[in-house]
Design goal:
Layout lengths: L7 H11 L3 H21 L3 H10 L18 H6 L4 H9 L11 H21 L10 H8 L10 H10 L4 H12 L14
Helix pairs in contact: 1-3, 2-3, 2-6, 2-9, 3-5, 6-8, 6-9, 7-9
The structure holds fe (ii) ion (FE2) (2 copies).
Length: about 190
């Protein structure tokens, strides 16, 4: 497959072939929404960026430990026909592989991964999901270590820095990106 032939529908099919967990599929959708939002704003190849985001944790269900994820997923993506550029971006989201995040796509994926998960967690404990969620309350929750303890705070902060964005602005963007798919993410919506 060449870059131009990659599309999000195909990536969704690959993801759902290897991932049955609803939570993992929702995580993929949340990160996709955020990365897609940035692609659109930056005038990048949105379909390619979305496909990459959808696939970043595609192997997590079969490789839930860092001695395998995501590196052991890479040969499967290669077999499925995905181009090196996508596979390299997927690999670069993993801190333990210490790969350079030297493209806008790599920086964006890294910056959206943990934060989308965290915003999702914030929304799950609010009566209207993320409909009225503000950066200020996300920042407050980031400072409570017991809340969504699995989210690496340092990666959230570093992600925004690498994007050269103010943290509040990045949080606002990710919330805005996720709002249209709140229902799919299992979040309550203002209307419901
Ligand atoms: Fe991951
Ligand atoms: Fe992830």
């Amino acid at each position: 497959m060449r870059r131009m032939e990659v599309n999000r529908q195909q990536a969704w099919e690959t993801l759902t072939k290897y991932t049955q967990s609803e939570a993992l599929r929702r995580h993929a959708l949340a990160v996709e929404a955020a990365v897609g939002w940035y692609a659109q704003r930056l005038g990048e190849d949105e379909d390619f960026w979305r496909a990459t985001a959808l696939l970043h944790d595609f192997d997590y269900e079969m490789h839930p430990t860092l001695d395998k994820h995501p590196q052991d997923g890479a040969p499967i993506l290669r077999e499925e026909g995905y181009p090196d550029e996508l596979i390299e971006a997927v690999l670069s989201h993993a801190e333990h592989l210490a790969m350079p995040r030297d493209t806008p796509l790599k920086k964006t994926l890294f910056a959206c991964d943990e934060l989308a998960g965290f915003v999702h967690a914030c929304g799950l404990v609010r009566p209207d999901g993320i409909a009225t969620l503000e950066p200020k309350s996300v920042r407050k929750k980031l400072k409570q270590p017991s809340f969504a303890a699995g989210v690496h705070r340092d990666e959230v902060y570093r992600g925004a820095e690498e994007l050269e964005l103010d943290l509040d602005e990045h949080i606002r963007n990710v919330i805005e990106a996720m709002r249209p798919i709140a229902g799919q993410l299992g979040l309550k919506t203002a209307a419901a």
